[in-house]
């Protein structure tokens, strides 16, 4: 391929064959972005990596490299130090500053051998460097080091995501736990205060649940909790969140809901729970739940813990008045009627 053909293939006017290859994302192929204004070195890198497990795309300027990086998010970048618009150092700094979600391994190609320049490149965020003219086997070996580092980062990221999910999820019901609910609800509360929409906290507790565990065993109790969780989730919108906060206690957060809407949602949940039949040891069982609800008062904004405390107080009132019912905070705690 001549230099002219190479330049046409790497121009931003239409996708090159290399770009198409990256988009196909063949199994096991590592995405590699090569940024170099020299068609000769782009060709040498292509010849070195083409027969290995790499999907390679090319840029002949720093700006084109950034555009391709944003589009394809390659795992490995091989960049020349000097380019027409901005340097490989600046490209490296841009990647490290703006693309921190997933790790990219960066190798700088340079004709400079001074230690101060090498240190400058590594300080800017490069992982490795290679001097020009480079040995093809050495480039391939360093690229393989990059592959191993990237794969290790992917494993760590996957484990971190799993740990984060486990830390925010109730293991029995797969609902968000108290920590996850509070993290979400604090943000919603802030938005409700700012924009003036209704924000409800509903506390729910299963009635006489201890007798289920004592009579039929904890496995039966787990079955009940899982089914109740499913009912709660089925009545939650995307703008809401529900979760288990401990034992037989659940929390539901509703936003953009009037008093009438909140009552309707709670009543549907209450009725569905009461209508659900369980069978343990040949005996039919039904359970009920009590509810306490409190709302952010638009005239007197409070923090989340205050709203939860009001909802808890309403819940205990529901328990005291006979269970299997809903109670709301006093009228003074409800949002002001809008005219």
What this model shows, in words?
This protein has 339 residues and is of the alpha/beta class. It has two domains: 3-166, Response regulator (Rossmann fold); 178-333, 2-Layer Sandwich (Alpha-Beta Plaits), CATH 3.30.70. Helix content is 49%, strand content 19%. The protein has twelve helices and twelve strands. It has helices at residues 3-9, 17-24, 39-49, 62-72, 88-98, 115-123, 136-167, 178-195, 209-216, 218-234, 259-275, 304-320, and strands at 30-35, 54-59, 76-80, 105-110, 128-131, 199-206, 241-246, 249-255, 278-280, 283-285, 289-295, 326-328. It has a five-stranded parallel sheet, with helices on both faces. β3 (76-80), α5 (88-98) and β4 form a beta-alpha-beta unit. α1 (3-9) crosses α3 (39-49), α3 (39-49) crosses α7 (136-167) and α9 crosses α10. The N and C termini lie far apart (74 Å).
* Sequence of secondary-structure elements: HHEHEHEHEHEHHEHHEEHEEEHE
CATH superfamily label of the largest domain = Response regulator
Distance between the termini: 74 Å
CATH architecture of the largest domain: 3-Layer(aba) Sandwich
Specify the overall morphology.
elongated
Q: Stretches where pLDDT falls below 50 for ≥5 residues?
A: 1-26, 335-339
For the largest sheet, list the strands in their spatial order. 2-1-3-4-5
Helix content: 40-55%
For the biggest sheet, the summary is:
5 strands, parallel
| Helix/sheet category | alpha/beta
Quick one: how many beta strands?
12
Mean pLDDT figure: 83
CATH class of the largest domain: Alpha Beta
CATH fold group of the largest domain: Rossmann fold
How many structural domains in the coordinates? 2
Measured on Cα atoms, how large is the radius of gyration? 30 Å
Give the strand content. Answer: 15-25%
Give the count of helical stretches: 12
């Amino acid at each position: 391929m001549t230099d002219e053909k190479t330049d046409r293939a790497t121009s931003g006017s239409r996708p090159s064959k290399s770009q198409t290859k990256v988009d196909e994302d063949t199994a096991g192929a590592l995405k590699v972005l090569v940024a170099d204004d020299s068609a000769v070195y782009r060709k040498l890198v292509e010849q070195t990596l083409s027969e290995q497990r790499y999907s390679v795309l090319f840029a002949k300027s720093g700006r084109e490299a950034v555009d391709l990086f944003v589009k394809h998010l390659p795992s490995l970048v091989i960049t020349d130090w000097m380019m027409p618009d901005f340097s490989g150092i600046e490209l490296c700094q841009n990647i490290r500053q703006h693309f921190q979600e997933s790790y990219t391994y960066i190798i700088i190609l340079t004709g400079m051998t001074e230690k101060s320049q090498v240190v400058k490149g590594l300080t800017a965020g490069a992982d490795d460097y290679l001097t020009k003219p480079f040995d093809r086997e050495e480039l391939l070996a360093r690229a393989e080091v990059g592959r191993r580092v990237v794969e290790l980062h992917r494993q760590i990221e996957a484990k971190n995501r799993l740990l984060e999910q486990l830390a925010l999820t109730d293991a029995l019901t797969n609902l968000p736990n108290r920590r996850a609910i509070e993290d979400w609800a604090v943000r919603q509360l802030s938005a409700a205060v700012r924009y003036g929409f209704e924000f409800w906290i509903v506390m729910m507790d299963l009635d006489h649940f201890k007798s289920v565990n004592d009579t039929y065993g904890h496995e039966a109790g787990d079955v009940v909790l899982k089914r109740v969780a499913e009912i709660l989730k089925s009545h939650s919108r995307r703008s809401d969140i529900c979760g288990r906060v401990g034992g037989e206690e659940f929390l539901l957060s509703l936003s953009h809901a009037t008093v009438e809407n909140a009552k309707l949602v709670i009543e549907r949940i209450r009725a569905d729970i009461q209508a659900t039949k369980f069978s343990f040891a040949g005996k039919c069982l039904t359970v009920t739940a009590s509810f306490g609800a409190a709302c952010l008062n638009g005239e007197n904004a409070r923090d989340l813990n205050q709203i939860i405390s009001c909802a808890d107080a309403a819940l205990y009132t529901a328990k005291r008045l006979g269970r299997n019912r809903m109670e709301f905070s006093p009228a003074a705690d409800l949002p002001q009627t809008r005219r």
